[in-house]
Each structure stands twice: as structure tokens, then as C-alpha cells.
Write a structure and sequence with these properties.
The complex is a heterotrimer. Chain A contains 20 helices and twelve strands. By secondary structure, chain A is of the alpha/beta class. By secondary structure, chain B is an all-alpha fold. The chains are: A alpha/beta, B mainly alpha, C mainly alpha.
């Protein structure tokens, strides 16, 4: 399956540089493998990360020493499991002078209302790394926490760069990351004798085979207008490469270009293999189809496993153990499988927190292995950012996640995190939904996208 | 209980002049009017006028008020030429909704009212049943219909069709995802617009839920209206040899003009205000409405487009202002000044 | 339709002690059929709400139940923190309702019992204001709220506060209630005031002791109606309140769907629980409810 590939444009200063991206990768690899590599990045790494949260470390985090009172915490961890995991994390916060008041808002509403929310935020709040964090940092909507980073020795330089705003200061503390990959059930692949596809042609052949076996090859969910952005990203990264993707996201490339058209041409070849009616399906419903073996493969973040709750359904554990994933197949040999999407989730501080000391103490704690282990113990669908977090408790999927990220040359964050938020939510969400509804309209859709992009990026 | 209000048009001069009151009474009376008027003007009218002003400006809502920049018609130019696909989809849906409310639930409501007015047995039970959806929030109505009626896996509509053995209504053989199917039922092109216009299937489907809630309201209004029609009118019509339809059309319906006016205006306003049901269903593509365009520019991530959001607000205002004025003129025409 | 007609028709004429008229039979047939259709969504929601999702999604909604359970309700109640959200709603509805009725009866009293220069202008402002779509107001209102300080609130301003939501309910709904009450008060004979005036009663006494008691039916009707409207509000709360735990019950419905994933039955149970108070109020106060609506329409 070839394409009209054109050479990538020259590297640009979009977001954090390529170098730091690589560092992030290396860092992630270290997390996974427990390699010593990372120790070098942490200037003040403590040997016993699990025992001492930053809040108790007066020397490293001066702000934390004065911390007491209530700190409010805005959470979008509204689904059962992440909610419980966050509660466990907060329960493990050892600074007893500080009480954390968690305000939970539904995941979707939280994101939709973020601009409103940031005008009036809690002291500490959940958010993502990447363009969207930098966007708010540049507007002065979130607080500088560079001093907290003084105590965050467990986080590699790569994560630090990912937490840094355009002005070189830090605005973000990472909690975990999770890669996007093609999920499948091992038992189905074993039973039918499917091999992991490495190339686009193998991938298409596998889809044909699955269809012949009565399995819908690809799950397609797009309720909320974001899940299929992952598909766009992957096909674009594979077709045109990382640099083109980053430039496109930054508004520097045209959506009416032949490269972008090629992405949708490639996508169209697999549309027939996807479940019908993607636009109305929640990602959870999609996960259920994979769990029920009605569908064979599902491109989604590794959080897909969190849809299956062994406490509620006895069969869930069996499904979780049977889940595996592989990196999205290569399309253009020049890029191979060199890029992966691994969004980093974490926390920011309000620009003017009511209790800055306590907020910083909490943030310092959240960057530690102790906090992240507490979180992942309850919701093990992602990988801890802290290099000190124990990998012993990792399940096979987590180890594999770390490997996947470690073996990739480039990390993208996800479409709605890598570009102007207004552009992602108002333009791209609709554009992709419209494409899925009627692929023949793509030229017209992309023309509209380009027009709207110009207005939005002009500010 | 209220139908005689019509006859009680106040007579000039019977009410006391303000100037005749004592000073203390004047202060009391003034405060009684001032507080509510203040609230209403400050929180309703000042924002309304500000919407108009802000629609000619650019502002992110975060920076100080002094940073507001006047940009003339730029916001309108943007929404009508760059973001036009959504704007016209929304305008189209609003018009479809409006037309549907008149031709569907409103006519049904009038019919039900007319039938129930015939002194039939069990009329209160019937009324109770037709009316109860009106007391539900449209957001709750949307969620109930989505989870029970439209659901792909277990929804009543999908199962009804599979029992009847015919799912060809939407040309599909699989269970239908009613809320997600943004495909257009039919579409047509208009000269100056790139994208075709047409009602999406998912939008047509939620019209059912909206109708479920609206018909009862219209029925109740017309029941009250019918009771207020002088029986002598009908008798006269009968003597003149009118059949039932002629009597209704030529005598009864025109006699209910006040009700006709208010139902018309409320229906228009409701159609333009509709927001809850689409927002509660996660605003899928296909369900664009002007009201959602306004809020998308306050709330959506990367919202804070106060100018553009206000321009959408003004579009909404223009669509309803004529009806509001018409209603007020009708209502207050005979009042003294 | 024919089936329904056949089974139900015989009752009717006997009760009316009349001959069976085919037209009446047809009429009842039509009304019964429409009623049944009208009940379908509610009854189906009730039916699935007592059954596990696994069962209905496998066997379909029309199947006979294997299991009947309250667990959807307890689940929705607990996970949706519904007791809490009911309380939030009460904290908004009750004060707003009281203030709306008092404030609008003040204005209605003034414009209907006294002649001032601005009577009509005032009524026009209130009536028109109530007819505006909320979305026309929201952009500037939001910016105003952000800049009106409220020192003791978490946000420091009116955004994200129950007071803020209550305030816009009051300001907005005063319009409708003033309109209805002034129409109603105009029907009260002027002689009552005049007699009181001669007796030397102050304006306030005329309002509180003469006019207000006479408006009880209208006020009861408006109270019922406004309770439902404010209870059902989704828009103001969703836009003006960011904290999930401060959202009143109707707007917390989006929290529910997020948490309950694809368990439609749990969602149905939660929705029914949200709808329950208004349905109860409606069943008890149907008459007030309907007269509230028609009061607003009757003046031509």
C-alpha cells in the first residue's frame, strides 16, 4: 500500500524539540526496563522513592514545608476505576496537615468546560502534557511550579521538557502515560492463526481474513468526537512521518495538501473493515465488542482495559488477561513504525491558588513513585512517569506499553493535545465525524478545515 | 379558572394616580418595583444588549475588559463564510424543528384538545397521560429515550423492527444506532453553500422525543381556550348548517386567537431555545442548533470566543425578536398608557 | 387501533347510559391508542430499570424478566450521589421560588393597582425579557458573573455558586410571574383598594392583607409551575457551575452517563429518579400546574 509520500519538511521549533522528545522516550524506556539510564537524569533522586513523598522533604521542596490546610483538587477521573485509583493516591498522601478536597466532574464535561473552569479553577487540577498545557500556560491561566520540580528528581528530563511551557518554566507534573496501539485478544489470534501485521498490506490481508471468519476486523467508536482522532494521527504518522504531523498540528501545513489527502485515501481503504456507525458508539461499547470477540482489533489507548472491571463482572479478568496489542502497522517504509502516541496525564496548579503551599506540596507528592504506585495499584492501565516507581507490580500490558514507547523514535501526544484546542474540538472533531459518515466528501471537508484553521490559528 | 380575565380590561381612571399617595407610601411602592426591576434589567436586559455590542468585537473573555477590540462585522463574516457549514446546518435544524413542532405535536395537541373537549368519559385520565411528559426536563427526556427507545443493543425501536422482521426503514440490516447516525435522510444543494443541507437521521429521531413533550403542552392550552369559547357561537354555527370541521375552522379556532398567539410564540421560542436534549446526548454531529453554537464559544475547550459566540447569540435574537414584538403588540394593544 | 377499539368500546356507552355511537367508539379507540403510545417510553424505562443490563441487552427489551432487581436504583443512587444532588437542587429551588413569587407580586401589585407613567413600559420589559432565549444572555452574563465578587464563595465570584444560579433564575422568571400576576390582579375589583384607602391603610397593608391573600390560587399555580421549571433547569447550571458536586440534580445527569458507561438500565433508573419529584408534584398538583400555564395565556 504505497502513497504519495513527500519528504518531511525541515525540523521546526514546534513545542518541545525533537531531542527532548527522544529523551522522553529514553526516560520511558528506563521506566519500563528499570534501566539505570534514568538515574542520570534525576539530580536529586532519592533511593527510597516509595517511602518519602516530596511534601516531607523540606530541603527539596521549600514551599511544601509550610503546607497546611485545605487544598482543592479538580478531577476529571469520573469513571469508577480511575476515581477509586485517585482516591487511593490521595489517601496515601502522608502530609497530614494538608487535606485534599477532590471535586470530580465527568470526563467529557471537564474537557469541554476547561476554559470556563480555568477562569475559576481548583488549586490543583488534572490535565495533559503537550500543546494544550502550553496553550494555557502561555495565557497565564496556570501557575508556575518550577520550584516544585526542584524536588521531582524521580522524573526524567524528557518528562520535564514535556512539562515545560513556552517560557521555559514548568507548569505540569506528570502522573502516568499510556500508549495508543492496536488491541486484540490473544486467544482469537491463536485460535484462528492470525499473525501480527507489520505492514499495511499484511494488515489489510488480516482484515480480509477476519471478515471471512465472521469477525468484524476493526472496532470503530467515535462518540464524543475524539476516539477516531487516534486513527487519523496514526495513519498520518505512518504515511507522512512525525515531523509532518507536528507541523500540520501546529497549523504550518495545509490541510488541502496532497499529503493529508493521502491520509484519508489510506483510511478509506480500511473503512469497509470497520464497524458501522462509529459516530454513535462510545469507546466503552467498542471495548465490549472486542471483549465479546465480535470484533478483532481496536486502535485505542491502553486505557481500554479499564473498561473491564473484575469486581463487577467475573469474566472481566479473563478478558484483561487475554488482551494484547501491537504497534500500528507501517505504511510508508521511510517512517516504518518509528512514532507512537503516548499521551501523558498529570496535574497543573491554578494561576492563583488559594493555598499555594499546600498545592505545591500535593504536586510534589503526585510526582513521586509513592503516589504513582498507589494510583496504578488500583488502575493498572497505564505506566508510571516516575523512574522510581516499582515495575514489579506491572502486568504484561504495562511492561509492553513501556517497551512500545521505549522502542519508538518519536512520541506524539494525541491530536486533541497536539494542536490548538479550539481547532481540535470545533473543527477536527466534526471533520472526522463527517468523513466517517460520508468519505466521498473528504475534499470538501478538508477545504472547510483549512479555512477554519486559518481563522483559529490567527487568534 | 382564568378565562374571565379577558373581560376585565382595566378602566382608565379607576386605578389611583401615584401622585395621590403619601410620601411613605410612595417610597414603599417605589422599592417594591425597584428591586425586581433592577434584577431583571441588570441580569437579563443588560446582557442582551451587551450581546449585540460584543458581537462586533473580539475578546477572549479572560483579558481585562479594556482589551476588547472592535472588529466591525468580522465575527459575522466568519460565521457566515468560514464556519458556515455549522451555522447553516444549525439554522436548518432550527427551522426543521420549528416546522415540525407546528405540523406534528402542535396539530396533534389541538386535535387531542378538541376531542377531549367533547365531554367524554375519562377525560382527566387522558389529559394526565398526554400531559405528564411536559413536567420532565428535556435533558431527562433525551436520556430516557436514548437508553430505552433508541439504544442500539436493547432499544425498543430496534427490537420492534427486528420482531416485525423489517429493518429497512433506514435502509439498514444491522441494529440502528439512532443517536449516532448523522447521515442525512435527504439533502439538497443551495447555490452559495459548499455543503449540502438536509436533516440528519439522528436529528429526525430526537424530534420524536421533543414531540412527546410538546404535544401535551399545546393540548392543555387549547383545552383552556376551547372552554372559553362562547357555546352560543357553536350553536349559531350549527344553525347555519356548518359541519363540525367548518364550525371549528371558521368559528371556534378564530375565537381562540389569544391562545393561538401564545402557542405560536411559545413554540417558536421553545424551538429556538432547545439545548438540553442535544447537550445531554453529547452534541453529536447532525444535531447542530444555534443555541449550541453560542455555548460552544463560551464553554468548549478553546472557547472564550466571546465575540463570535455573541454573533451567534444575535442570530438567535434576530430569529425570535419579531415574534416577541408581535406577541407584545397583540397583548398590550388595548392597554392604556 | 381496531383491537383497542373492540376491547374498550363497550364500557363507555353503558356508563353514559346511551346508545353505542360508532363515532364515540372510534374516538375512544383513538384516544386510548395515543395514550398507550404516550406511555411507552415511561413504562419501558420502568421495565428495564428493574432488570440487569446484561439480560436486556442479550434478550432484548421485550423478553420476560429472569431477574427483577432494585440494584440499578441503588447503583444509580449511590454512584450518582443523588441524595447530595437532590439537596443541592432544594437549596436552589426553595429560596429562588420564594423570592420570585414575592418580587413579582410586588411589581404586579404596583402596576395593576396604581397608575404610573411607566406601567406599560415596565410590563413590556418583564414580558419580553421572559421570552428571550437564555442563550442570548449567556455570553455577557458569564463575563459579568466572573467579575462580580462574592468573597465567601470558593471561586471568589458568582460563577460556580448556587447563589449565582439562583440569581439568574430569579431575574429571569420574575418576568413570567409578574406578567401572570398582574393579569390576575387586574381582575380584582378596584373598590377593595379604595375602601382600604379610605380606612387609611398603607400601601404595604393593601398589598399584604388585601391583594396578596386574594391571589392565593394564582400564586399556588405559579409556585407549582416554577418549581418544575427551576428543578428541570439544565442550561444555567451546566454553564454557570463547574464543580460536579455543586450541580443540581437535573444537570448532574451528564455526570451519570459518564460514569455508567453503556449500562442503559442504570442510566434509565437514574433518569427516573431524577424525574420522580416533578412527576409526584404533577400527580398531586395537576390542577395548579395546568392553571399556572393557562393563566399566562388567558389575557388577549
Amino acid at each position: 500500500m504505497s502513497n504519495n509520500y513527500q519528504p518531511s519538511p525541515s525540523p521546526s521549533e514546534v513545542g518541545f524539540s525533537l531531542i527532548s522528545r527522544r529523551q522522553a522516550l529514553l526516560g520511558a524506556a528506563g521506566v519500563a526496563g528499570g534501566a539505570a539510564l534514568l538515574a542520570a537524569c534525576g539530580s536529586d533522586a532519592k533511593e527510597d522513592g516509595a517511602a518519602a513523598p516530596g511534601a516531607t522533604d523540606g530541603a527539596a521542596a521549600p514551599a511544601a514545608s509550610a503546607a497546611k490546610g485545605e487544598v482543592t483538587f479538580g478531577s476529571n477521573y469520573s469513571d469508577e476505576k480511575p476515581k477509586a485509583a485517585l482516591a487511593a493516591t490521595m489517601a496515601a498522601f502522608t502530609n497530614k496537615d494538608v487535606t485534599v478536597k477532590v471535586n470530580t466532574v465527568d470526563h467529557n464535561s471537564y474537557q469541554e468546560n476547561i476554559t470556563t473552569y480555568l477562569q475559576n479553577p481548583d488549586d490543583v487540577m488534572c490535565w495533559f502534557a503537550g500543546y494544550r498545557m502550553r496553550f494555557f500556560a502561555a495565557k497565564g491561566l496556570v501557575g508556575d511550579i518550577s520550584d516544585v520540580w526542584g524536588s521531582l528528581g524521580e522524573l526524567s528530563g524528557g518528562f520535564k521538557t514535556a512539562s515545560t511551557g513556552d517560557d521555559g518554566k514548568q507548569y505540569f507534573v506528570p502522573l502516568y502515560y499510556y500508549p495508543w496501539a492496536v488491541h486484540y485478544r490473544k486467544s482469537v489470534f491463536a485460535e484462528k492463526g492470525y499473525a501480527i501485521p507489520k505492514t499495511w498490506d499484511e494488515f489489510l490481508a488480516l482484515c480480509e481474513k477476519m471478515t471471512a471468519d465472521g469477525i468484524t476486523p476493526l472496532v470503530a467508536a467515535n462518540d464524543g468526537k475524539w476516539p477516531q482522532m487516534g486513527m487519523f494521527d496514526m495513519i498520518n504518522l505512518r504515511t507522512n512521518g512525525y515531523q509532518f504531523h507536528v507541523d500540520l498540528m501546529a497549523g504550518k501545513k495545509e490541510w488541502t495538501s496532497p499529503e493529508v489527502a493521502q491520509v484519508f485515501t489510506n483510511w478509506e481503504t480500511i473503512l469497509g473493515h470497520q464497524q458501522e456507525g462509529a459516530n454513535g458508539r462510545t469507546w466503552q461499547d467498542g471495548a465490549n465488542a472486542l471483549g465479546a470477540k465480535e470484533a478483532g482489533m481496536y486502535l485505542l489507548g491502553t486505557f481500554v482495559a479499564s473498561n473491564f472491571d473484575p469486581a463487577a463482572d467475573p469474566k472481566a479478568q479473563e478478558i484483561i488477561d487475554d488482551l494484547d496489542f501491537f504497534p500500528f502497522p507501517s505504511i510508508n517504509p521511510e517512517h516504518g513504525q518509528d512514532a507512537v502516541e503516548a499521551p501523558i496525564d498529570g496535574f497543573m496548579m491554578a494561576a492563583k491558588p488559594k493555598n499555594a503551599d499546600a498545592a505545591k506540596a500535593l504536586l510534589a507528592y503526585l510526582g513521586t513513585a509513592a503516589a504513582q504506585e498507589a494510583y496504578l495499584a488500583v488502575d493498572p492501565s497505564s505506566v508510571a512517569a516516575s523512574s522510581k516507581a516499582s515495575t514489579a507490580g506491572y502486568n504484561a500490558l504495562q511492561k509492553k506499553s513501556a517497551e512500545l514507547v521505549g522502542s519508538a523514535k518519536y512520541i506524539a501526544q494525541f491530536l486533541d493535545r497536539d494542536t490548538n484546542p479550539e481547532f481540535a474540538s470545533k473543527v477536527m472533531g466534526d471533520a472526522i465525524a463527517n468523513f466517517l459518515d460520508d468519505p466521498s466528501k473528504i475534499a470538501e471537508i478538508l477545504k472547510g478545515v483549512e479555512e477554519q484553521k486559518k481563522i483559529i490559528f490567527a487568534g | 379558572m382564568s378565562t374571565d380575565v379577558t373581560k376585565a380590561a382595566p378602566q382608565v381612571g379607576r386605578r389611583r394616580r401615584f401622585s395621590q399617595l403619601s410620601k411613605r407610601d410612595k417610597i414603599v411602592l417605589f422599592s417594591m418595583v425597584a428591586v425586581p426591576t433592577f434584577l431583571h434589567i441588570v441580569f437579563v436586559w443588560i446582557p442582551t444588549l451587551s450581546t449585540i455590542v460584543l458581537s462586533f468585537t473580539k475578546w477572549d473573555g479572560l483579558s481585562p475588559v479594556s482589551s476588547i477590540k472592535v472588529v466591525g462585522l468580522r465575527n459575522y463574516w466568519e460565521i457566515f463564510t468560514v464556519f458556515e457549514a455549522k451555522l447553516f446546518a444549525a439554522l436548518f435544524n432550527n427551522v426543521v424543528l420549528l416546522g415540525f413542532l407546528f405540523l406534528g405535536p402542535s396539530l396533534l395537541g389541538v386535535l387531542l384538545a378538541y376531542l377531549l373537549d367533547k365531554n367524554i368519559r375519562g377525560t382527566r385520565i387522558y389529559q394526565g397521560i398526554y400531559y405528564f411528559p411536559v413536567v420532565l426536563s428535556l435533558a431527562v427526556v433525551g436520556i430516557i429515550w436514548k437508553s430505552v427507545m433508541f439504544s442500539e443493543r436493547q432499544g425498543l425501536l430496534n427490537h420492534t423492527w427486528s420482531i416485525l422482521g423489517d429493518r429497512t426503514v433506514f435502509g439498514q440490516t444491522e441494529p440502528i444506532d439512532f443517536v449516532g447516525d448523522q447521515g442525512k435522510a435527504f439533502s439538497f444543494n443551495i447555490p452559495f453553500l459548499d455543503s449540502a443541507l438536509g436533516p440528519s437521521k439522528n436529528f429526525l429521531v430526537i424530534l420524536l422525543a421533543i414531540a412527546w413533550r410538546h404535544a401535551g403542552y399545546v393540548m392543555v392550552m387549547y383545552l383552556a381556550g376551547l372552554k372559553s369559547v362562547d357555546p352560543a357561537l357553536r350553536e349559531a354555527a350549527a344553525i347555519d348548517g356548518c359541519n363540525e370541521w367548518q364550525a371549528f375552522r371558521n368559528v371556534v379556532f378564530p375565537a381562540m386567537k389569544p391562545i393561538n398567539v401564545i402557542v405560536l410564540v411559545i413554540t417558536v421560542i421553545e424551538a429556538l431555545r432547545t439545548f438540553d436534549i442535544v447537550a445531554a446526548l453529547n452534541a453529536p454531529v447532525g444535531m447542530e442548533l444555534i443555541s449550541l453554537q453560542v455555548t460552544e464559544n463560551i464553554l468548549g475547550e478553546g472557547g472564550g470566543q466571546v465575540g463570535r459566540g455573541s454573533a451567534y447569540g444575535v442570530v438567535l435574537l434576530i430569529m425570535c425578536i419579531g415574534f416577541i414584538i408581535w406577541y407584545l403588540a397583540n397583548h398590550y394593544r388595548e392597554e392604556q398608557l | 387501533m381496531t383491537a383497542a377499539t373492540a376491547t374498550w368500546a363497550p364500557d363507555d356507552p353503558r356508563a353514559n347510559k346511551q346508545r353505542v355511537k360508532p363515532a364515540r367508539v372510534l374516538l375512544h379507540g383513538f384516544l386510548i391508542l395515543t395514550s398507550l403510545i404516550w406511555l411507552v417510553p415511561l413504562v419501558s424505562a420502568l421495565y428495564v430499570s428493574f432488570r440487569p443490563y446484561g439480560e436486556t441487552s442479550r434478550k432484548g427489551i421485550f423478553s420476560a424478566p429472569d431477574t427483577l432487581t432494585l440494584s440499578n436504583y441503588t447503583g444509580a443512587f449511590k454512584q450518582g450521589r443523588m441524595a447530595h444532588h437532590y439537596l443541592v437542587t432544594l437549596m436552589i429551588v426553595i429560596p429562588s421560588l420564594v423570592l420570585i413569587l414575592f418580587l413579582s407580586s410586588f411589581v404586579a401589585f404596583a402596576v395593576s393597582r396604581f397608575t404610573w407613567r411607566f406601567n406599560i413600559a415596565l410590563l413590556l420589559v418583564f414580558t419580553a425579557g421572559n421570552l428571550l432565549p437564555q442563550q442570548v444572555i449567556i455570553q455577557p452574563l458569564f463575563q459579568m458573573y466572573k467579575r462580580i465578587p462574592l468573597p465567601w464563595s470558593d471561586s471568589g465570584n458568582l460563577l460556580d455558586t448556587l447563589i449565582g444560579v439562583g440569581l439568574i433564575h430569579i431575574s429571569f422568571q420574575i418576568g413570567f410571574c409578574t406578567f401572570v400576576l398582574s393579569n390576575y390582579m387586574k381582575t380584582i375589583p378596584k373598590e377593595l383598594n379604595e375602601a382600604a384607602m379610605v380606612d387609611g391603610a398603607s400601601v404595604w397593608r393593601q398589598y399584604a392583607q388585601i391583594i396578596l391573600p386574594l391571589c392565593r390560587p394564582a400564586i399556588a399555580a405559579l409556585a407549582t409551575l416554577e418549581f418544575t421549571w427551576i428543578y428541570n433547569d439544565f442550561f444555567w447550571a451546566v454553564v454557570l457551575i463547574k464543580s460536579g458536586d455543586k450541580r443540581p440534580i437535573t444537570s448532574s445527569i451528564s455526570n451519570l452517563t459518564g460514569q455508567f458507561f453503556s449500562d442503559d438500565n442504570l442510566v434509565a433508573s437514574g433518569s427516573l429518579l431524577i424525574a420522580l419529584p416533578t412527576l409526584v408534584v404533577y400527580l398531586i398538583l395537576q390542577k395548579q400546574f395546568i392553571s399556572g400555564l393557562t393563566l399566562g395565556a388567558s389575557k388577549g
